[in-house]
Write a structure and sequence with these properties.
The complex is a heterodimer of chains A (115) and B (114). Chain A is mainly beta. Chain A is 0% helix and 54% strand. Chain A has no helices and twelve strands. In chain A, strands 2, 5, 6, 10, 11 and 12 form a six-stranded mixed β-sheet that branches. In chain A, strands 3-9-8-7 form a four-stranded antiparallel β-sheet, with no helix packed on it. A two-stranded antiparallel sheet of chain A has the order 1-4. The relative contact order of chain A is 0.33. Helix content of chain B is 0%, strand content 56%. Chain B starts with a strand and ends with a strand. The chains are: A mainly beta (115), B mainly beta (114).
Protein backbone atom coordinates (compact mmCIF):
# COMPACT_ATOMS: atom_id res chain seq x y z
CA UNK A 1 0.00 0.00 0.00
CA UNK A 2 1.06 3.56 -0.59
CA UNK A 3 0.65 6.68 1.52
CA UNK A 4 1.44 10.35 0.95
CA UNK A 5 2.37 12.96 3.53
CA UNK A 6 2.26 16.64 2.74
CA UNK A 7 4.22 18.16 5.55
CA UNK A 8 2.62 21.60 5.56
CA UNK A 9 -1.13 22.13 5.64
CA UNK A 10 -0.77 25.87 4.99
CA UNK A 11 2.01 27.88 3.38
CA UNK A 12 1.66 31.67 3.41
CA UNK A 13 4.14 33.52 1.21
CA UNK A 14 4.57 36.99 -0.25
CA UNK A 15 4.27 37.63 -3.98
CA UNK A 16 7.52 37.12 -5.93
CA UNK A 17 9.04 35.04 -3.12
CA UNK A 18 10.16 31.45 -3.72
CA UNK A 19 8.10 28.59 -2.36
CA UNK A 20 8.52 24.88 -1.69
CA UNK A 21 5.61 22.54 -0.97
CA UNK A 22 6.84 19.31 0.54
CA UNK A 23 5.60 15.84 -0.30
CA UNK A 24 6.90 12.52 1.01
CA UNK A 25 5.52 9.15 0.11
CA UNK A 26 5.72 5.63 1.45
CA UNK A 27 5.51 2.61 -0.81
CA UNK A 28 6.93 -0.89 -1.05
CA UNK A 29 6.73 -0.74 -4.84
CA UNK A 30 7.69 1.70 -7.55
CA UNK A 31 5.29 4.57 -8.00
CA UNK A 32 4.21 7.29 -10.36
CA UNK A 33 4.04 10.75 -8.78
CA UNK A 34 1.72 13.67 -9.45
CA UNK A 35 0.98 17.19 -8.31
CA UNK A 36 -2.58 18.48 -8.77
CA UNK A 37 -3.78 22.04 -8.11
CA UNK A 38 -7.29 23.06 -7.10
CA UNK A 39 -8.21 26.73 -7.47
CA UNK A 40 -11.13 28.01 -5.37
CA UNK A 41 -14.50 26.63 -6.47
CA UNK A 42 -12.94 24.49 -9.19
CA UNK A 43 -11.99 20.88 -9.82
CA UNK A 44 -8.44 19.60 -9.78
CA UNK A 45 -5.94 20.21 -12.61
CA UNK A 46 -2.80 18.20 -13.21
CA UNK A 47 0.23 20.42 -12.62
CA UNK A 48 2.99 17.94 -13.39
CA UNK A 49 3.84 14.28 -13.15
CA UNK A 50 6.83 11.97 -12.88
CA UNK A 51 6.56 8.68 -14.74
CA UNK A 52 10.16 7.88 -15.66
CA UNK A 53 13.32 9.45 -17.03
CA UNK A 54 14.61 12.79 -15.77
CA UNK A 55 13.90 13.21 -12.08
CA UNK A 56 13.22 16.93 -12.55
CA UNK A 57 9.85 17.70 -14.12
CA UNK A 58 8.48 21.11 -14.99
CA UNK A 59 5.08 22.63 -15.59
CA UNK A 60 4.20 25.32 -18.11
CA UNK A 61 3.54 27.92 -15.39
CA UNK A 62 6.95 27.83 -13.73
CA UNK A 63 6.54 25.08 -11.14
CA UNK A 64 8.99 22.20 -10.94
CA UNK A 65 9.26 19.07 -8.84
CA UNK A 66 12.13 16.69 -8.28
CA UNK A 67 11.75 12.98 -7.63
CA UNK A 68 14.20 11.87 -4.97
CA UNK A 69 14.03 8.09 -4.63
CA UNK A 70 16.40 7.81 -1.69
CA UNK A 71 14.40 10.34 0.33
CA UNK A 72 11.04 9.20 -1.11
CA UNK A 73 10.15 12.80 -1.81
CA UNK A 74 8.59 14.80 -4.63
CA UNK A 75 8.74 18.41 -3.47
CA UNK A 76 7.15 21.16 -5.55
CA UNK A 77 9.01 24.44 -6.04
CA UNK A 78 8.54 27.77 -7.74
CA UNK A 79 11.22 30.48 -7.71
CA UNK A 80 8.76 33.40 -7.77
CA UNK A 81 5.05 33.05 -6.97
CA UNK A 82 2.13 35.17 -8.15
CA UNK A 83 -1.14 36.04 -6.48
CA UNK A 84 -2.82 33.75 -9.01
CA UNK A 85 -0.93 30.73 -7.59
CA UNK A 86 -3.13 30.89 -4.50
CA UNK A 87 -4.76 27.46 -4.41
CA UNK A 88 -4.80 24.04 -2.76
CA UNK A 89 -2.05 21.71 -3.96
CA UNK A 90 -2.32 17.92 -3.73
CA UNK A 91 0.52 15.45 -4.13
CA UNK A 92 -0.54 11.98 -5.30
CA UNK A 93 1.03 8.60 -6.04
CA UNK A 94 -0.06 5.51 -7.88
CA UNK A 95 1.29 1.97 -8.07
CA UNK A 96 3.34 1.36 -11.22
CA UNK A 97 2.29 -2.28 -11.23
CA UNK A 98 -1.41 -1.42 -11.19
CA UNK A 99 -1.88 1.32 -13.73
CA UNK A 100 -5.62 0.73 -13.67
CA UNK A 101 -5.76 1.41 -9.97
CA UNK A 102 -6.27 4.65 -8.15
CA UNK A 103 -4.49 7.80 -7.12
CA UNK A 104 -3.51 8.09 -3.46
CA UNK A 105 -3.69 11.74 -2.47
CA UNK A 106 -1.96 13.61 0.32
CA UNK A 107 -4.00 15.85 2.62
CA UNK A 108 -3.21 18.95 0.60
CA UNK A 109 -1.27 22.17 1.15
CA UNK A 110 -3.03 25.50 1.00
CA UNK A 111 -0.74 28.03 -0.68
CA UNK A 112 -1.71 31.60 0.12
CA UNK A 113 0.17 34.28 -1.81
CA UNK A 114 -0.06 37.76 -0.29
CA UNK A 115 0.73 41.06 -2.04
CA UNK B 1 -12.00 20.83 -25.97
CA UNK B 2 -10.61 19.59 -22.64
CA UNK B 3 -13.71 20.34 -20.62
CA UNK B 4 -15.66 18.13 -18.27
CA UNK B 5 -19.04 19.62 -17.42
CA UNK B 6 -21.12 18.83 -14.38
CA UNK B 7 -24.71 19.72 -13.57
CA UNK B 8 -26.09 21.03 -11.37
CA UNK B 9 -23.47 23.28 -9.75
CA UNK B 10 -25.33 23.22 -6.45
CA UNK B 11 -27.94 20.82 -5.09
CA UNK B 12 -29.87 20.85 -1.84
CA UNK B 13 -31.88 17.74 -1.10
CA UNK B 14 -33.74 16.19 1.78
CA UNK B 15 -32.98 12.76 3.11
CA UNK B 16 -36.00 11.25 1.38
CA UNK B 17 -35.40 12.80 -2.03
CA UNK B 18 -34.08 11.15 -5.18
CA UNK B 19 -31.80 13.24 -7.35
CA UNK B 20 -29.12 12.72 -9.99
CA UNK B 21 -25.78 14.34 -10.75
CA UNK B 22 -24.67 14.50 -14.37
CA UNK B 23 -21.24 14.61 -15.96
CA UNK B 24 -20.33 14.96 -19.62
CA UNK B 25 -17.13 14.97 -21.65
CA UNK B 26 -16.50 15.11 -25.38
CA UNK B 27 -12.81 14.30 -25.43
CA UNK B 28 -13.32 10.69 -26.48
CA UNK B 29 -12.12 9.52 -23.09
CA UNK B 30 -13.00 5.94 -22.17
CA UNK B 31 -12.51 6.16 -18.39
CA UNK B 32 -14.73 8.23 -16.13
CA UNK B 33 -14.56 8.72 -12.38
CA UNK B 34 -16.67 9.94 -9.47
CA UNK B 35 -14.90 11.45 -6.48
CA UNK B 36 -16.26 12.82 -3.20
CA UNK B 37 -14.43 15.75 -1.59
CA UNK B 38 -15.14 17.09 1.89
CA UNK B 39 -14.00 20.58 2.81
CA UNK B 40 -10.24 20.94 3.27
CA UNK B 41 -9.71 17.26 2.36
CA UNK B 42 -8.38 15.44 -0.70
CA UNK B 43 -10.78 13.80 -3.15
CA UNK B 44 -11.85 10.25 -2.35
CA UNK B 45 -12.44 7.90 -5.25
CA UNK B 46 -15.95 6.44 -5.37
CA UNK B 47 -16.37 4.75 -8.77
CA UNK B 48 -14.47 4.19 -12.01
CA UNK B 49 -16.03 3.29 -15.34
CA UNK B 50 -13.83 1.92 -18.08
CA UNK B 51 -15.30 1.50 -21.56
CA UNK B 52 -18.77 2.03 -20.05
CA UNK B 53 -18.39 -0.80 -17.56
CA UNK B 54 -18.02 -0.37 -13.82
CA UNK B 55 -14.39 -1.12 -13.05
CA UNK B 56 -13.91 0.07 -9.48
CA UNK B 57 -16.42 0.54 -6.65
CA UNK B 58 -14.67 1.73 -3.54
CA UNK B 59 -17.22 0.11 -1.21
CA UNK B 60 -19.60 3.01 -1.65
CA UNK B 61 -23.00 2.72 0.11
CA UNK B 62 -25.84 1.64 -2.14
CA UNK B 63 -27.61 4.98 -1.70
CA UNK B 64 -25.15 6.14 -4.38
CA UNK B 65 -25.81 4.47 -7.73
CA UNK B 66 -23.60 5.24 -10.73
CA UNK B 67 -24.64 4.87 -14.34
CA UNK B 68 -22.74 5.26 -17.59
CA UNK B 69 -25.33 5.45 -20.40
CA UNK B 70 -22.69 6.03 -23.08
CA UNK B 71 -19.03 6.90 -23.41
CA UNK B 72 -19.64 10.63 -22.95
CA UNK B 73 -22.02 10.61 -20.01
CA UNK B 74 -21.76 9.62 -16.38
CA UNK B 75 -24.56 9.91 -13.85
CA UNK B 76 -24.66 9.50 -10.10
CA UNK B 77 -28.12 8.68 -8.75
CA UNK B 78 -28.74 9.67 -5.15
CA UNK B 79 -31.40 8.25 -2.84
CA UNK B 80 -32.00 8.41 0.90
CA UNK B 81 -28.79 10.31 1.58
CA UNK B 82 -27.53 11.29 5.01
CA UNK B 83 -26.34 14.74 6.12
CA UNK B 84 -22.77 13.40 6.23
CA UNK B 85 -23.01 12.86 2.46
CA UNK B 86 -22.88 16.63 2.00
CA UNK B 87 -19.74 17.32 -0.03
CA UNK B 88 -18.36 18.41 -3.38
CA UNK B 89 -18.82 15.64 -5.94
CA UNK B 90 -16.23 15.70 -8.68
CA UNK B 91 -16.36 13.92 -12.00
CA UNK B 92 -13.20 13.23 -13.98
CA UNK B 93 -12.29 11.55 -17.23
CA UNK B 94 -9.12 10.24 -18.82
CA UNK B 95 -8.07 8.66 -22.10
CA UNK B 96 -8.40 5.29 -20.44
CA UNK B 97 -7.99 3.82 -16.96
CA UNK B 98 -4.20 3.86 -17.19
CA UNK B 99 -3.08 6.30 -14.50
CA UNK B 100 -0.21 7.57 -16.64
CA UNK B 101 -2.88 9.52 -18.54
CA UNK B 102 -4.04 12.81 -17.09
CA UNK B 103 -7.39 12.89 -15.34
CA UNK B 104 -9.46 15.95 -16.34
CA UNK B 105 -11.77 17.13 -13.59
CA UNK B 106 -15.06 18.96 -13.78
CA UNK B 107 -15.85 21.87 -11.42
CA UNK B 108 -18.00 19.67 -9.22
CA UNK B 109 -21.50 19.65 -7.78
CA UNK B 110 -21.78 20.99 -4.26
CA UNK B 111 -24.34 18.81 -2.52
CA UNK B 112 -26.09 19.70 0.73
CA UNK B 113 -28.28 17.08 2.40
CA UNK B 114 -30.76 18.51 4.91
Amino acid sequence: AQSVTQLDSQVPVFEEAPVELRCNYSSSVSVYLFWYVQYPNQGLQLLLKYLSGSTLVESINGFEAEFNKSQTSFHLRKPSVHISDTAEYFCAVSDRRNQGGKLIFGQGTELSVKP
Amino acid sequence: DTEVTQTPKHLVMGMTNKKSLKCEQHMGHRAMYWYKQKAKKPPELMFVYSYEKLSINESVPSRFSPECPNSSLLNLHLHALQPEDSALYLCASSRDQDLTYEQYFGPGTRLTVT
